[in-house]
Specification:
By secondary structure, the chain is mainly β. The chain has one helix and eleven strands. Strands 1, 2, 3, 4, 5, 6, 7, 8, 9, 10 and 11 form an eleven-stranded mixed beta sheet that branches.
Length: about 160
């Protein structure tokens, strides 16, 4: 392999590595890999997920989320009580010093995008603004990813929606 080919390969690998790892930082907060599942046409809402790690010595709080593609955007928590999935809106999420909040499908916190103006299609990137009590506003891109192979009891859909 020539030196030029090696340089091209190294450059391509470097670009590939950053294409999937999209992290954001505001003050002492690290926001990791915001993503959402694709929706089907006519589906009125979708879920978005990300992680928030507080690397500082003081607590902070996620107090609002907004996206231009949804009429409203809410922070929800989901839990299983027996065989019943309970979902409720929470006004905010406290993030203690050194704590990491990981939003994932199936249980815990997630962001509901309600009243979508368009279906979420795999490969799309949607803008979202996170507002923290102390750190302020952070603009992120939410990647729409088809993660049907998730592990951990996730049923792969929106079964928690009311029919």
């Amino acid at each position: 392999m020539s030196y030029r080919h090696l340089l091209t390969l190294v450059a391509a690998l470097a670009l590939t590595g950053t294409a999937y790892a999209h992290d954001y930082k505001v003050a002492e907060l690290q926001v990791g890999h915001p993503w959402a599942r694709p929706t089907v046409p006519g589906q009125p809402s979708g879920g978005a997920y990300l992680s928030i790690e507080n690397k500082g010595k003081a607590g902070d709080k996620l107090i609002a989320v907004a996206s231009p593609i949804a009429k409203s955007t809410e922070i929800h928590t989901m839990s299983m009580e027996g065989n019943v999935m309970k979902m409720r809106e929470v006004g905010s999420i406290d993030i203690k010093p050194t704590e990491k909040i990981a939003m994932q499908p199936g249980n815990g916190y997630h962001i509901m995008l309600i009243g979508l103006s368009q279906p979420l299609k795999a490969g799309d990137k949607i803008p979202m603004t996170l507002t923290f009590e102390k750190a302020g506003k952070l603009e992120v891109s939410v990647y729409v990813e088809d993660k049907t192979a998730d592990k951990g009891g996730d049923k792969g859909g929106m079964e928690h929606m009311h029919h």
